[in-house]
């Protein structure tokens, strides 16, 4: 078993583990965001009720509650933006994994001598190549979406 094959196998396992760890971290953060959403929702409901029920409260207190409510809305919007970014990252990880699998499959076809390939294998190789190109295009679209979002936030 040549050294270069062992190196490629090790690197493939390492990159797969990195994707797995990244996916776990994203999942944990999405769960944290969901919990924070619920907490913000509860705080918002309390503030809305205070604003509706307290007609005889001083104007300063109402202003303070209104500012708190606006702060909660702002925080919720920033969390929604972060959640959107994380969902794009999840999609990117899926496409990266899919690209890796298709690349491995294509390598198997390409390693075989051209004269020994059956017509079915040639067709499968072309199909795999087309799928790989589609995945690369999808990843490119995600990168453009992220870039547009970043530029719009600036």
UniProtKB/TrEMBL annotation:
Residues 23-50 form a coiled coil. GO terms for molecular function: monooxygenase activity. It is found in: Membrane. The keyword Membrane applies. Keywords: Coiled coil, Membrane, Monooxygenase, Oxidoreductase. The keyword Coiled coil applies. PROSITE patterns: BMERB. It comes from the Eukaryota. The gene is Mical1. This is MICA1 monooxygenase. Residues 13-154 form the BMERB domain. Pfam families: bMERB_dom. Its main location: membrane.
């Amino acid at each position: 078993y040549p050294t270069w094959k062992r190196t490629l196998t090790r690197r493939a396992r390492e990159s797969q583990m990195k994707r797995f760890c990244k996916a776990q971290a994203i999942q944990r953060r999405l769960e944290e965001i969901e919990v924070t959403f619920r907490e913000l929702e509860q705080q918002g409901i309390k503030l809305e009720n205070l604003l509706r029920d307290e007609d005889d409260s001083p104007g300063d207190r109402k202003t303070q509650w209104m500012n708190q409510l606006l702060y909660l809305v702002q925080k919720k919007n920033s969390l929604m933006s972060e959640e959107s970014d994380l969902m794009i990252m999840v999609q990117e990880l899926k496409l990266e994994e899919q690209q890796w699998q298709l690349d491995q499959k294509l390598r198997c076809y390409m390693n075989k001598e051209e004269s020994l390939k059956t017509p079915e294998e040639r067709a499968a190789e072309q199909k795999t190549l087309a799928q790989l190109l589609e995945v690369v295009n999808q990843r490119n679209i995600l990168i453009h979406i992220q870039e547009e979002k970043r530029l719009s936030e600036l």
